[in-house]
Design brief:
Residues 1-66 form the Pilus formation protein N-terminal domain. Helix content is 15%, strand content 48%. The protein is an alpha+beta fold. Strand 10 (127-128) and strand 11 (135-136) form a beta hairpin.
Amino acid sequence: MNTGDAQTVMLDTSAATVFMSQPTIVDYKMIDDSKVVIFAKKEGQSTFIVYGDKGQEIHNSLVVVNRNLTLLEQQLAAYFPDEEIMLNNVGQQVVLSGTVATGRVKQKIYNFVGEMMEKESKDLLVMVSGDDQDEELDYMTRHVYSGVINNIKVISSQQINVKLTIAEVSSSFMDEIGIKYSAIAGTAGDYVNQLLHFSATDIVNIITAVDDDKVGRILAEPNLSVISGETASFLVGGELPVVTYIDNTANVMFKEYGIKLDVAAIVLDESNIRVTLIPEVSSLDTTNETINSNVPSLKTRKAKTTVELKNGQSFVLAGLLTSENSESVIKVPMLGDIPILGALFTYTKSKRTTTELIIVATVNLVSPISTESVVLPSMQKVTMLERILRVNLSDHDREQIGEITATMGFK
């Protein structure tokens, strides 16, 4: 029975006494000696027993009252008219079943049912790795409702591809190609379609085409795919052992260094994607080693940004500057060591290098492909003659040339 339902129970013999174990859940009303109407008040269960004139038991049953889902089904159909979702009572649980197009719709239906049923909920947090501790992403928090089981199936999970280019360029590079962030928005990152007609691909192509370490160099080009609502990470580098002592006991901790990237992404609707990027570039600094253990320190450049993009859009994150000073002394052997006069034979050179880290990211919605559609690169063995003459021969020509060279032209 559902809450609010009533049911008539017909008896074979006349009833004298009716017993209901939980009258607040199920109550009854005698219509006549052989007819009893029971009606459900709220969710739960109650034992229903009827006794005859001689005290004999003539009826015994367990009445289970479930939540009436009729109104909720009507509301669900009104808010999600394109989805076919079924609701079923299983004990004290409500089970959702059906098929939807995306995971985002699945979560929205689940939240709707949980809120309408006024079920208690707890937050399931999504974390991304930070430097010392994990960081929470509020916009990716999912609600879990007690008493609601989500068995809705998704036809195809939405997947997001994030392609990044991490480059280190000279401090004047961005000005040389005509991009001035402070003049546009006063912030380190901005959409590339506002950057004076430059695209993300243009910036990367310029760095690659120049191929000069004095101008810039590509550090890494990670390409990560992640299911909507999940996280991914990328690391190219190593781990630095750091020894600490607590109560004369040595403890070794490993700290990652190199090029590291943490990504979290979620599809908001058909055209908008929200992405959180935490890029980090670190290197060993041997000039600042610890005195006792000679462990180098780390030079680190790190950023965190959350942006909202459309499918296929790119953005540039910049402004991560670093400056290095170096000084070298060049002197004439022996003469440069003469007190006072040695300065005339000594040349001191100071150099200051300023570099900027730029990160170009492009976001695309992707879908898996079948194995038959995958085309792998192949290598074909080339003969010595082809390499010398720089020609491509057919298989038939290779076979004939092979016979000639094997027999020295004689058969």
